[in-house]
Amino acid sequence: MSIVKKYPLGAIFAAILLLTACEKTPPDYRDPVTLPLYTKGDADNGALIYKDACSQCHQLNPGLNKKGPQLMNIYGAPAAELEDYNYSEGLATSGWVWDAETLDPYIADAEKAMPDSKMLSDPMPDAKERADVIAYLSTLRAPVPAVDDKAK
């Protein structure tokens, strides 16, 4: 029995349309990091602090935003640049670039550094812990996929 006899032609056409319309929008990526590693902190300790204090809201994979945006290639990137995350207006218009000078006060107390910040983390008053987190963030470097890879 042919497929056309078993299923009406309209149903086959509708199924084809649905399948082609289900293509997922590729995740947004940041450009590769060009700044040197931040060496005024311990990146290994920063990874532990990140896991404990940051990973509940931040992923490291493009397209996997949680309460906060993913952080791969964040070091040296303009603030609020991912199109697949809804940033606060203050951060979106800040003109900030995420380096040690901007990350340190933001991690120390996001609400003080950016009054309308969506980041609701507890302040991190320990300067060494912040330096360690910044050192870790500076190691998060992944190449941007080729245009063909983004479409997959």
- The H-level CATH homologous superfamily, spelled out, is Cytochrome c-like domain
At CATH level 3, the topology is Cytochrome Bc1 Complex, Chain D, domain 2
Rg (CA only) = 21 Å
The amount of helix comes to 40-55%
Number of helices: 8
How many angstroms separate the termini?
35 Å
Main sheet attributes: strand count, strand direction, barrel closure? none
Stretches with pLDDT under 50, minimum 5 residues: none
Strand percentage, roughly?
Answer: under 5%
Shape: globular
Number of strands: 0
Order of helices and strands: HHHHHHHH
CATH architecture label = Orthogonal Bundle
Structural class: mainly alpha
- Please state the average pLDDT score: 86
Return the CATH class. Answer: Mainly Alpha
Tally of structural domains: 1
Explain this structure.
This protein has helices at 3-6, 9-21, 43-53, 89-92, 100-108, 110-113, 127-139, 147-150. It is 41% helix and 0% strand. It has one domain: Cytochrome Bc1 Complex, Chain D, domain 2. The mean pLDDT is 86. It has eight helices and no strands.
SSE layout and pairings?
Blueprint: H1 3-6, H2 9-21, H3 43-53, H4 89-92, H5 100-108, H6 110-113, H7 127-139, H8 147-150
Helix pairs in contact: 3-7, 5-7
Short characterization:
This protein has 152 residues and is mainly alpha-helical.
Which structural traits does this protein have?
Cytochrome Bc1 Complex, Chain D, domain 2; mainly alpha; 152 residues; single chain; globular
